[in-house]
UniProtKB/TrEMBL annotation:
One of its GO terms (biological process) is double-strand break repair. InterPro entries: Bact_Antivir_Def_Nuclease (IPR051396), P-loop_NTPase (IPR027417), Rad50/SbcC_AAA (IPR038729). GO terms for molecular function: ATP hydrolysis activity. Pfam families: AAA_23 (PF13476). This is AAA family ATPase. It comes from Eubacterium ramulus. Residues 11-137 form the Rad50/SbcC-type AAA domain.
């Protein structure tokens, strides 16, 4: 059996996710070191990567992807008269770019549009095809 395609996450983009209003982070194929002060967003970055990559689990029988929660919405302070008002910002968006062995770079995104909404998946056809292939291989004992 031919070797399964490897997925390399190349870049992650965040919009209104936790402490990030808007940011793009390039990731290296072998190792990316994340360094920052407490509260700088290291854990938020890693969680966003987990949410993006868990998109693959939607193709697995009985598995669930991680979702963006309303608590993940970036909070922005507004001054209304003499009162500070803090409001969650939407949409919350996580975009991911990945390289598959022999294919062109692919992109997909997860979005939460409102506090009462559900996390959506967009442009994930190719990453889901790879995930389906992974599941098939596992079911056939190709580990």
């Amino acid at each position: 059996m031919q070797e399964a395609e490897k997925v390399y996450l190349k870049k992650i983009s965040l919009e209104n996710f936790r402490c990030f209003e808007k940011v793009e982070v390039d990731l290296q194929k072998k190792l990316t070191l994340v360094v920052g002060a407490n509260g700088a967003g290291k854990t938020s970055l890693l969680e966003s990567i987990a949410i993006a990559m868990s998109t693959m689990f939607t193709a697995f029988d009985g598995a669930k992807a991680m979702n963006i929660t309303k608590e993940s919405a970036h909070l922005k302070a507004y001054k209304i008269g003499s009162t500070d008002n803090v409001q969650p910002q939407y949409p919350v968006r996580i975009g991911a770019w990945a390289q598959l062995d022999e294919r062109p770079e692919i992109y997909w995104e997860r979005t939460l549009n409102t506090a009462k909404g559900k996390t959506t998946i967009k442009d994930a056809k190719q990453i889901l095809e790879v995930a389906s292939d992974y599941q098939k291989r596992l079911q056939e004992g190709d580990t």
